[in-house]
Structures are given as structure tokens and as C-alpha cells.
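Database export, one record per block. Field names are fixed; values are copied verbatim from the stored entry.
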Amino acid sequence: MSNNNDKLIEFVNSNALIKSSEPDVIKADCDNIIFILDNCEITVPKENEFFISVNCSEIQRSTILTRAKKYENKIKDLGLKDGELALCYTGLYDFSHTTADWDSVISLGIYGLNERIKDYASRYKNDNKKQRFYSALNSVYSAALRFINRAAKKAEENNKIKMANGLKALAVRAPENLFEVMQTVIIYYVLQHIVEGTYLRTLGRIDKLFFPYYLKDKESAKGLIFNFLKEIDRLKAPSNIPFAVGGTDADGNSLINELSYVILDAYKSAKTTNTKFHVLCSHNTPDDFILSAFDGVKNGNNSMVFMSDGKIIESLKKMNAEHLDAVDYHVVGCYECGAFGELTCSCNARVNLPKALELCLNGGKDMLTDKLIGIKSPDDYKSFEELYNAFIKQAKYFCDCACRITDIYEKEYKFLHSSPILSATYISALERGGDLYTEYTAKYNNSSLNALGLGTVVDSLSAIRKLVYEDKTLTLKEFISILKNNWKDNELLRLRIKNKFPKFGVGDKKTDLLAKDIIDNLSAVVNGRKNVKGGIYRLGTFSIDWRWEFGEKTAASADGRLKGETISQNTGATFGADKEGATSLLRSICAIDATKTPNGSIADIDLHYSAVAGDNGAKALLATLKTYFALGGFAVHYNVLDTETLKRAKETPENYPNLQVRLCGWNVLFNSLSEKEKDEFILRSIKG
């Protein structure tokens, strides 16, 4: 690490812990950001066309971890620590799933945002509290303009004349052409995500945002977009940088335009590894656009997610978003949506549904440690209904614990983190004269809870119902003993349950109703629950890569899963259970009302390349997608896998350096996976 970075780290660390009882986090963070902007080392990569590069990622971000440590004792004092350590439930702050008001960023530029701050300061001259906020923002944005001028000078020194001229212009005015708009987007990303440390998790609906500038510069647009995507990709954001196209306007008209097609074509050609593409589909999205997107998926662009515009809008309105705000939603991260004006905290609380059933079968105790960490419960139940009700009670208790931990952190946001760069883009923050985090000034200040392992717990409940209460093959106590012993000496029974019993994901109505009822029950206690920020909680059912760590802390489950194995992924079936194909899987998922999981739900479809080859394969995908959305589906992504290619890539990774697969919610290079993860993808391709 360079001496320059050591200087930045030393300065930031000195402000990480503020010893007074009422620390001024905004001042400390602004001082850090200004120091980084004025002193960070600037380099100009040869391949960059739009902006320079800085090496200060995570420096300011590190202050959050330092400041948050002191709240761990509060979790322990409430008796919630053992359950958290056992991964029954967790709760946390979320400064990682944000969007800027991209309309403001692009129409005003960094210079114009600063001028707007000054305008608000002049409106509220007699409000000392607001004046202090505006002054802090102005000092940061003034430093940002100095940083842009430094970057321009460095670009000029490296003979990047077009880059330099654009930066000089953007230091004194708003962007005026497509090239400058793209520069502005990258500049803003660097300012918020890399320097400020508030993760920026979408570039917005770029076909809509860029369209007026595209009309002025159609001839060079495709090349610019291709180079823009490549430069965005080189930023190497954790879990990829997303952007969206499509959706509808307030009257329900499709927003797909000619630029949407140009962006899609450029994306398919660019073959990026650190970006992802949200396709916002409505009933009037042109078929040829979706077919072109599927062509990309079939040829390795597994990073595309197809999302139901109508279902997203409906779910946000049920969470009290105004109609126009719901229509102008954003998608952050993998597949989480927020209304316009919402600060989307989509990864706060988590609950482990298979663990809730585990405790329910063991008197409220963890089978792995024998600690009492849940609600005390019987170790036997006279009927399946009695057992199921006890499970629901345990799951609801987990939800309450997870939300209580999240409340601890969110109540203390004023001592944890501020976001002056992001706050300046929100009109609500400027109107209210306070930071988005420390003062909760977003229009919608919601929190989230994600229920993990739905497929695993549904299959487990279904297996218990059949084996114990319907077929009466074993008593419940006998079956519990088998689970505690991790299926030892019962491999034939385990395989029979795993391969022959009813499963979620095959269109079995009786099993699917279990999934529906679980979500109905959790929705009733999570959705609309008040948080400490003046907002409410939202339920989601995505698990992303958390399923691995949560599985490691979960005992053997009744669906045939062994102790420590991963639990089910996102809203889908358990691994290998969806034997009836994609249509049956999607039908099972649609048994759940997606408006009751407004924080996001996703179906994962693995298909062998031979199943989607040719025009007929693409048309089959289109028909499946339309059916899924017609049945009420929320979002879906496809992994098109070739078994032999994956096997060869595992054996000779040097021959497949760019092979990509979609891991939970983002793209990764196949060779970056663990051996266990590679083996899972190979098995999934065979299943597909």
C-alpha cells in the first residue's frame, strides 16, 4: 500500500471513534471525505476513456465497523446474542443498497448539485440547524469539484484530452452530451461508492436517463455505451454494478425505446463480469426485445434478471408508496425495489426458517449446541397441525428478534454513518435540512427482513406430515432422533425422502400451499411493522449466498438434507427437487402472493444449453416468462449451463478464464468459486 494511502487511513481512523457522548458524525465524515478527495492518489489507466482511477476504496467505509462495535453489548443484554450466533436470526444496519436520484445527478451534474445546495441555504437563512447541514454538503461538493479539476489536470498530463476537456466542463456546468453524461455517472459513482463509502447499487434506468442525450449523438452512441460498460466493469464493484432498462410510465406505456436496444446489443457484446442488467418487463414490452435478451442469456450473459414491472408497482403501493413514486421505482442490488424517494435498506434482518423448525422439534433448543435459544416447545406433537402452528410461532419469534436487533442499529444511525454526497441528490433531504441516515430524511425510510430457506422448510414439513402423521412409518420422536444423529444408519430412508417425497417446486398443490401459508403468516407480522426511522419493515425471500453460512449452522433437516449442508436458494426449490422442469417450478413459486414479499423474491432457473437452443428454445423461454408474470411472479433469472464445459473448466481452469455463472444474485467467474460450489453448478447443469 502506498504511503499516500497510509496517510488517508491514518486521518480517517482518527475520526472513526469519537469519544464525546454526542459525537458529530456528519462533521467527522465530511472531514474524512474532503481529506480523501484533496489527497488521494490519482492514476489514469490507459484503457479508461471517461474518468481517472483512485485507490481509496473501503477507507471511509471502515469507520462504520469501528463505530458499530459498541452496540454488540446491547444485543447481548436483550438475550439475543445466542440466537444470532447460531444464525437463527440476525439484524444489522444497511448502508449498502442505495440509489442516487439519477435524474438530479444527470440533469444538474456535480456542479449543479452544489449550486442547488447553495439555493436551499439561501431559502432557509434563519434556520441554524439546516444551515449547518447545507454548509457541510457545500464543503464536500466544493471538494468534489476540486477533485474533478485535479482529475482533469492528471488526464491532460497523460494526453487524455477528451477526458480532460469533459472534466473541465463538468467542473463549471451540467453535462451537455452523452459522453459527459457517462463521465458524470462514473464521477458520481466514485464520489459516493468509493470515497464516501455508501455503496451505490444501481446506475438507474439508463435507457430513460440517457435518451435525450442519445438523440443528439446517435452516430457514436453504440461505441460510447460499449466503452462505458467496459469502464464501469473495471470498477469491480462487490456483487456487480446493476442498471435497468424498460418499465412503464404513469399511464402504463412501455418505456423501451430505441436506446434500450442499443444498450442491450452493446451489453451482449461487452461480455462484462462485474455488471448486471435488470430487464423491467410489462405486458407491452416488445417480444423482440425480450427475445434479444434471451439470446444474450443463451450465449453467456447470465447476469440478466427479468422483473415484473406490474408486480413491483403493486407491491410498493401495498407498502404505502404513492402511485407516481411506485411507478418510478428503482432496483438496487440483486432484485430489491424501492419507490422513488425511498432509501432502500433491503438487507437488514434475516431469519433461518429451517432453524425455526429445528428448534420446534427440539424443545426450543439448538440441536448442534443444546442451548435454549428459541421459544420453549414440546418435543412431541399429537397432530401435524399442532406441530405446524408451533413452527409458525417459532418463526414469528425469530422475526421479532431479528427486527429488535435491527432497531438497535437503526436507532443509532446518527452515531454510525452519514452520507452527504448521497443526501444532496434527494430533494426530501434538502427540504428537511438533514442527512438521509442521521436524520432519516428520505421520503420512505423502510427496513427489511429476509426469510431464508423456504424450500428447505417446506419440504421438511411436507416430509414430516407424510412420514409421521399420514403413513405413520415412524413416530415423531423416532424421526427427531434420526435428525439429531445426522441420518446415521438411515441412508436409505434419507434418499427415499429426498427423491420420492412431495417437494416444493414440482407444482404439487398440497406442498405449495404450505409455502403460501408460511409467507402469509410472516407477512402478517413483518410487513407494516413500524421501525425506528418513521418507516416500516418489508418481507423478502431471497437468500443469495447467505444460504451457505446459514446452512453450516443448521442441523440435519427432515427433507433429507445433511447437517451443515446449504439450505435452499432464494424463493426456489431445494437443490435437485424441481424435477418436473421450469414451468412446474414457476407455478409453485406463484402459489405465493409476491406482493407479500415486497422486499424481493426471485426464481432461479437452471437450464441445459440443449434445452434452449435455436429459435424454438428462445420462444419457449419467452412463453415461460410470460406465463410466470401472468401468474403473478416477481422476478426470475436464468443460468444456461453446459455440463461438459463446466467439467472441463474445473479440470483445466486456465483454458476458461472468462466463463461466467450467476451465483445467487450476481455474476462470478466460474474459476473463482470454491470446489464445492463448482461441483454444485455441475450437478445443476446435469439436472437442467
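Remark 1: Residues 128-157 form the longest helix (30 residues).
Remark 2: The longest strand covers residues 275-281.
End of record.
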